[in-house]
Structures are given as C-alpha cells and as structure tokens.
What we know:
Number of helices of chain B: 5
CATH architecture of the largest domain in chain B: Roll
Number of strands of chain A: 6
Number of helices of chain A: 24
Number of strands of chain B: 19
Order of helices and strands of chain A: HHEEHHHHHHHHHHHHHHHEHHHHEHEEHH
Distance between the termini of chain A: 6 Å
CATH topology of the largest domain in chain B: Nuclear Transport Factor 2, Chain: A
Radius of gyration of chain A: 26 Å
Shape of chain B: globular
Largest sheet of chain A: 4 strands, mixed
Helix content of chain B: 10-25%
Number of domains of chain A: 2
Strand order of the largest sheet of chain A: 3-4-6-5
Strand order of the largest sheet of chain B: 1-2-3-4
Strand content of chain B: 35-45%
Shape of chain A: globular
Radius of gyration of chain B: 27 Å
Distance between the termini of chain B: 73 Å
Helix content of chain A: 55-70%
CATH class of the largest domain in chain B: Alpha Beta
Structural class of chain A: mainly alpha
Number of domains of chain B: 3
Largest sheet of chain B: 4 strands, antiparallel
Oligomer: heterodimer
Structural class of chain B: mainly beta
Amino acid sequence: MQRLxxxxxxxxxxxxxxxxxxxxxxHAPLLLMKLPLKSYDTNFHIFFASHYSHHWFDPWNAxxxxxxSQTTYPPLPQQWVAIVSRLIGLDMAYMLVQFAxxxxxxxxxxxxxxxxxxxxxxxxxxxxxxxxxxxAFLVYSAGQLSTTFAAPLYLNSLPxxxxxxxxxxWRSLLKGSALAVAAAAAHHATLLFGxxxxxxxxxxxxxxxxxxxxxxxVGSFIIRTIFVTALVGTMIAVVLLPFWIALINYPVTxxxxxxxxxxxxxxxxxxxxxxxxxPYGAMILALPFIFMRGSSSPRLRPLLLxxxxxxxxxxxxxxxxxxxxxxRAFEVLTMERFAYWATLLALPFIGLLAEELIDRYKxxxxxxxxxxxxxxCAVAVSWASFRPADAEDFKVExxxxxxxxxxxxxxxYVTLGFGNKIARLAVLTNASSVDGEWNxxxxxxxxxxxxxxxLTSSKYFGKNGLDAxxxxxxxxxxxxxxxxxxxxxxxxPLLVFSGWRKVDDLENRTITVWSxxxxxxxxxxxxxxxxxxxEGVLWGILPIGSSILAMLLVLIPDRRxxxxxxxxxxxxxxxxxxxxSESSPANDDLVLGRIS
Amino acid sequence: xxxxxxxxxxxxxxxxxLVVMGTIHPNQSGAMIADSRARLIGSASSPQDAVNNLxxxxxxxxxxxAYASLANKGEFTETEFVRxxxxxxxxxxxxxxxxxFDSQPLRASGDEAQxxxxxxxxxxVGIFExxxxxxxxxxxxxxxxxxxxxxxxxxxxxxxxxxxxxWDVVYRGAEDDWGxxxxxxxxxxxxxxxxxxxxxxxxxxxxxxNEDVVPAFVTVKASLLGSNGSTLATEDSFDKISHILLPKxxxxxxxxxxxxxxxQVDSVRIQPSANLVAASADPVIGIxxxxxxxxxxxxxxxxxxxxxxxxxxxxHVIGTFYDNKGQxxxxxxxxxxxxxLPQTPVPFTISLPADVSNKVGSYRVVASTYSSSRFQ
Lengths: 596, 376
C-alpha cells in the first residue's frame, strides 16, 4: 500500500516543536495575565466549571434561572477546567485549558493543512494559526472556550478519518472517531454546523483522490464513509445522550434574541469592524489569492467551497445566505463562529501563499508576513480593551459577601447593569438568581417570551428587554426574588414606581441594594427539565471519558507507511513548477501526484 | 483568463452580488434594536423619504447627520435639537430608545408638504409616543424636514420657599436587646375593590387608604380563588399604584391577571401590606387643567406643576375613573416623558378604553414622583 505524499521544494518545513514554542511565547504570557477574564463569555464557562467542581454528577444548576440544566450545553472544556481547578484554581485552570486548545489548534491546522498542501505550507499555516485574528478574538474578546476547544479536536480528527476512508486504516478510524466524539462533547454548535463545513470538503477530497488513484474501489470507499459516519454519529448520540434528551424534549423555541453578529456589517459598520475586520485582519488581503488559487487546482476546490460557505455565513446579515441556509437556527446562533471556521479553512491557502512569497521575496516576505500576522493578532488581542465587554470594571466580591451573610441567600436576586459580571457573582455567592447568561437553558416564561438576553442588560434589548425585566419583577413573589443589585441608575425609576425600596449600598455607593417586602423565601423550582439521576451519571462519565479515550488512542503509534512520494507524470505536468523556470499559474500547486 | 480560475471569479462575483442583495434588502430581525432598522439611507426624493431618513438617523442616534439634514437648522442649535428628542434633567427621554416610527402624509403641494411622524420610544417604565407634524420643503431635487423644535422651558433664577411635612423614622437597632419594640407598621385599608373581565383576563380595580398618622409604603396583592377554594392566580399592583401614602392619603390600584376569566373566579383575596417609611410631602405636584376628552381620542388630559424648587426627573400620573354611582370603572396611568422643572407645567394624557369612556362620570388623579439624587 502506498500513500499520498508531497514533494517538497525549497526550505524544509518548520518543525512542529518550534510552532508549539511560538504558541507558548505568544499566548502563555497573555493567559498568565488572565486577559480572557475581560472577555464576554469567560466567566460563563468558569461558572459552569464551578458547578461541575462541586456537583460533578448533578448537572442541575440552581444558581441561574431559578434552576436550569447544564446538559443543555456540552461539558467537556468546563469539566476539564473543573478538574484542573482542584490544583490551580478556577481562573488559572481556565487559562490552562484554553492554552491546551491553542496548542492543539496549531497541531490540528498542521495536520489538516497537510491534506491539502505540502508539509512546508502546512507548517506556515500552523504558524499562522498562532497569530490568527479570529482565534485571538474568540479567546480574548469573546471568551468562547468551547468553540476554540472543539475546532482543534475536529481538525485533528479529520486527517485520521481521511486515512480511514482512503486506506481503511483501523487505527486511524479509532483515533479519528474518538477525537470527533470528544469535539462533539466540547461544543454542540461546532458539531451541528461546523463539522459539516470541515468534513464535507474532506469527503470530497477523498473522493477526488480515490477517483484519481484508479486503484481503490469506489464501492468500498463509500461503505467506509457511511460506516464512519454511522459510527461517529452513534458514539456522539450515546456520549451526549442527556444533551439530546434535553434538546428533543425542550427545543429552543423562545423568542429570538437579537445579536449584532446577525446584522448587516455594511449598514452597521461598527459591527463590521467587530465581526469582520478584527477576526480576519490581514487575511482579507489574501482573499483574492484564496479564491484564485482555490479554483485553479481541482484538489483545492472542495476546500475553497467549504471556505466560501463559511465565509458567507460568517458575514451574518450582510448577505441573505446565512438566513436561507440556517433557517430558524439563524435566530439562535451567533455568526462569529462561522468567521472563525472560515479563517481555519483558509489557513492551508495562507500557508501556500506564505510559502510562495517566501520563496520569491525571501526575508522581505518573512518580514512582511510577520508584520501582517503580528498586527492582526495584536489588534484582535487588544480588541477587548477597545471594545470591552463591560464599560466599567468593578468587583462583585462585596455583593457576594452581602448575599452570603445574614440569611440573605434564602432569597433569589437579580442584578441590573452588571454585564457579564453576573457569572462571576454566581460563582462567588450561594444565592440563586432568576437571571443568567445561558439563554438556551432558561425556561422561565417571563424570560423566554420577550426576546431579550440577560436581565442585567435589559436596556440594551429595548422594549423586549424592559418587558422581560418588568415581568420578572412583577412575579417576584413567585420566585422568591427579594433582592435587586443595581449598578446602573437607568433602572431606578422602574424600581421606585414598582414598589422596591433601597435598603443598602455597596462599593462606595456605586451599587445599591433594593428589596421588596413580604416576598417568601425561595423554594426549589419543581422543573420537568431537571435531568434524571442516571443522566447526571452519564454526563459525568461519558464526555470526559471520550476525551481521555481519545488521548490514549492518539498515543498509539501510527503505522510507518512504506510508500514514498510518487508523482504521476500527468500531475507533475499540471502542477509541478519546473526548476529554475517561472511557474505558470496552473503550475503553482504544491499538491503533487499520488498512487494508492 | 484560464478556465480553471473561472470558479474563483464566479465565487467572487457571487459574493459581491449577495452582499449587494443583503444590503439593499436587509433583513435584520436578528440584529440589535437600534441596528434592526438600519437601511441604506437613500436620497430624499419625496417628502416621506425625507421624514423616513430623518427618523432612521434619530433611531441610530446619528444626531449630527440628522441635524445637518434639516431645512431649518439655522433656527436652533444641534444641542437644542438633541435635547428636544433626548430630553434633559434625567427625564424618561434621556434614556429612551426609538423603538419604531410611522409616517403619514397629511398634505402636499409642489414645494411643501406636511407629514405626521409618530415615534414610539422605549423607556425604562414602558413605551411612550411622540407625534410631530413635520413641514417638509423642497430644496432643489431634494426634500428637507423643517423640525418643529420644542425647547425646554428655562426656569428664571428665584428663591422658592418650601414648608412641608416630613417624617423621619428611627428603627430598632441591630444591637438592641432581643424583644425591644420596633415601630409599628401603619394601618392601611382597602376602601374599594371592583373586579372586571377585560381583554381575556381579570382586572382588579380598587383604592387603598392610609388611615394612620404616619406615612406608609403600600403594596397590594390579590389572589383569585376558584370555587373549590384553590388559588387560580396571584399578582400584585406593581406600578399601578402610588406606593408611598402620606397620612389619610388614598391611592388607586389596578391588578391585572392574564388568562383567567371572571367566570372561573369565586372570590378575591386582597392583601394590602404596609411598612413605615421615611417620607416627605415634598415635592408638591399640582394637577391643573384636567379635561376629559370624549371619543374617538378618549383620554384625560391636564398638566402637572412642580410647586417645589427641586427637579422631578420622572412623574407618574394615575387616574381613577368612576361612574355616576361612584363605582370605580377604570384605573389608568401615564409617565410624562419630560422632567418637571420648578413651577413649569408639563402636560399629561391618560388614555381611556373606548368602552370605559362612555361610563365615566367623575375622576381623580394622583401623581407620584422620582427624583434622582444626581440631579438635586
């Protein structure tokens, strides 16, 4: 059996160790500074992890929405944070898990890119992934741990699955399947939407390669593809069974919540900067190259089409495509993840571009590319400072302390003007809130009927947000809601006129505490959404188990392939630039021939 | 061009076409509130286009562009224009967002037209409407809006003597001995209660009296009981009441129950609760020029006059409407969008349902206020 190989030209590939070192040098200091804590969602993930650290086998979390199920959100990264937090605390555990995701991404990009381009270009692609604007944006500004954790696992899984589809390599099947399941256990949106964007081009690539090889049997290839799809699908169904139960029994039917990533970026240029310019950065300059080079090589066309679809989806409401393709999901998903996946799919092209520029312009190209990538990363990292999740940084320890003393935590609370600090507060306090940041997990009708996000930020959702806030305040008795912590005086008239009284103030009078009389103490909500005990056990074992299994399987050494790079004459004529001559556009491909 | 690059060119062209389509016909239902109305600002080639463009700019708070587009901008400054729309002194307008607008042509000639613009603003205590009849004039091929500026009244420098009652409360301290007597809660009483079936739900209308000699912070809760004594629903008066009642003061209240029919209700349990609070009679708000407007615009209009020297940021007017027999037929409220400056009348309008309007024989209006310490 012979396998695909690439004939390299020019300089040797960058060693992976050097790439990992680069990832360490760039991201370790930023993570040690806990920069992601400024982001939108980091505290949300830490809050979930905090619950797992205390109640590993009970996914029912009573601290938000008067109780909600964490089985509505795949748990893998948060569970790892919970485990590591036993040693180094929640914040640093988060940073460590995030760093592992970044390192895994470089490896994943390298392995994924090698399917499409040569090892040297794949090395450049992996190097570029360290400085990728969208990665930095998601890590330091959006705080999307799950997305950035799942994507590398998929990228590492796909080359194995490709090997299985093409060469029936059983070890690859095991490794690829385990990694794909672990990826699914890390993030549901990546599983439901992103996986197709990555997997379909790989299947198409395998089809192209099988047809070109003429030696492989197309029928057996199809059977292997169906088999692996069924296998992975079944494993994901089992590992995430409580998630599917929650999703099927309680689908997300609430009134859609607006999100700026779904707006038109031209009509709303501030969001265009946020969701297009910052994540793509200098990659925008490479777009013509991506389109031209992707279309000129048949073997790169599936990747180009995958990138194009992800690119259009990532443009949110700028084109009608996202709404048409995603339907109802368009109203639920946020679109920046599609831009992230688009940039990942573009990286093999970027590696190719870097290779050609460096071959042609030597150090000038190195300097230019480093500058462009560095600036892209720098802007994306610092974006959290330019557009902070919270306009004002403040401590919530005093609020948590107030709630935790004198029996105040017998009642529920809600905050106003706390932004994403509500997750940090929820970690610190024993009290339960009717608010929260995991919109898909909430079931209180006052929240699901109005199309607004967290109550603490009601005013940003206009009439819908204020209606939701009024509704929940009106039903304070029902939920044992006795305390309102107000940071933003905007809400003061509503509290005054609806019968709340100021009873205390904190943080040098910047936070006021409001109370309502005659509210009964909070009682647990008898919710049908509460997972059964066996679901909690599954939830505590299978997702984390899938990742441990994947790690063990990946440690099994790959079989040494006997085949060497073989270049067919026809491919060589079509793609190999002749030494010393200027390559024609049609000859620029690095993808050389192969014999299976 | 090689055939192999055709795909790339097609994809680039398709991307551009899709972006153009998405921009010319944006569908931004998923976008944030202010952005969801974002459209390409077209040329003001008709009076209504000019008004719509202006409304969009107001909605997106692009004040500079909105002001620049006006025909009569020489008559006032941009700051005055912004204050007209956005309010001042921490009024409801200060923090309101334009939630929607309609424009309706009233008349048009060759060079001038009149268009009515109805703006719906979302404030922290609910929606309020602002209707303006806009004169639109032609300027070359374009139409421009002449904005009917409403300037905030300026209060002349003066001294306003205040002589009002104030109640302070000294509560039992946390370190006092166990069993030490605390101040007693004030006595309040429900003096009227009338349940009505309305809009697919039940509405409890009533009045509560503070019969004590100290101020009370009052909340009224009601439970609807079924024939077997079970509780069908429990709600409270929320903001349809004046919560702070001075001695002998009466407040109307309204409690809304959705999705319960009066026919299901066997009895109503009303639970007023009162707490002693520090309070003062200041600021005193006078209610002047009350007038009941008949159908089709059935409403109660009047004006509020702040008789004290401090600014009232937000006022709340609650009207109680009685039939000729003296029974309560409706309770309605309104939050005027502008702040109450000392000695300066601010109009209010309490809308009435059409079917209630015919029954009203008399009415009574009370006002409660909110003054932020930041503005005092």
